[in-house]
Design the sequence.
């Protein structure tokens, strides 16, 4: 059983309307955290279930996470003030498997860019980030500080590359060989990246988003379908993921 910690909120920023960036004092979690893992956060009020939120980055004594207000729980969480404690369980889940020396691509879309920052900081990779439009572009400066090989893409062409991030990545892969693709984003992006990776025979790791109950494998709320047979066909995202080999999962 993972321990829950009372973590003081030390920095709070609204990146764009409804999307929040929190930094909390959490030395115990920061010491254990691996890229791609998540936190299970108590939001307070009448919300009984914790909310799973990916780890964005860590330092010696802090953990950073970002989230979008989607319901009552995240709305209450966004109302937390600097100096107040947040009840956080973590780090949880299976993160990215990183091999030193590999040449890789990191691709994320929308709020899926948040779990990839720590990875971009630790990996010498080419990074593609996709957003619907210029107003929704977030964390560009963070990524540039972490990794200079960055391409920002917007669906409507209002900023950066004109088109989807997967299109920009596809163009890059026409002339460049890579050893691994790391991806986090909406399901259509995951499906397309999975198809491209398998067509080009490039190993690929996908970080899945899934509704969760307990976050520690005690319930079956967050199962995803895999290509395994029998009892192993469905796996719990909270413990077996959120990161999976693209060839294993069915999207």
Sequence:
């Amino acid at each position: 059983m993972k321990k829950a910690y009372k973590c003081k909120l030390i920095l709070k920023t609204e990146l764009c309307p409804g999307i929040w960036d929190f930094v909390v004092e959490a030395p115990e979690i920061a010491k254990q955290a691996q890229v791609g893992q998540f936190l299970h956060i108590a939001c307070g009020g009448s919300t009984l279930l914790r909310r799973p939120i990916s780890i964005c980055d860590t330092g010696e004594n802090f953990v950073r996470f970002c989230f979008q207000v989607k319901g009552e729980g995240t709305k209450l969480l966004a109302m937390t003030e600097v100096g107040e404690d947040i009840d956080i369980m973590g780090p949880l889940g299976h993160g990215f498997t990183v091999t030193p020396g590999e040449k890789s691509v990191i691709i994320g879309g929308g709020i899926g860019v948040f779990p990839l920052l720590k990875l971009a900081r630790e990996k010498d990779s080419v990074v593609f980030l996709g957003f619907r439009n210029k107003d929704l572009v977030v964390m560009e400066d963070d990524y540039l500080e972490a990794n200079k090989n960055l391409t920002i893409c917007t669906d409507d062409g209002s900023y950066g590359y004109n088109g989807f991030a997967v299109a920009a990545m596809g163009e890059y892969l026409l002339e460049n060989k890579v050893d691994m693709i790391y991806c986090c984003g909406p399901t259509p992006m995951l499906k397309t990246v999975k198809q491209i990776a398998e067509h080009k025979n490039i190993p690929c790791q996908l970080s899945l988003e899934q509704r969760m109950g307990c976050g520690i494998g005690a319930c079956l709320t967050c199962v995803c379908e895999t290509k395994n047979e029998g009892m192993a066909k469905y796996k719990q995202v909270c413990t077996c993921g959120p990161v999976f080999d693209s060839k294993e999962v069915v999207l």
Summary: The chain has a mean pLDDT of 92. The chain is about 20% helix and 35% strand.
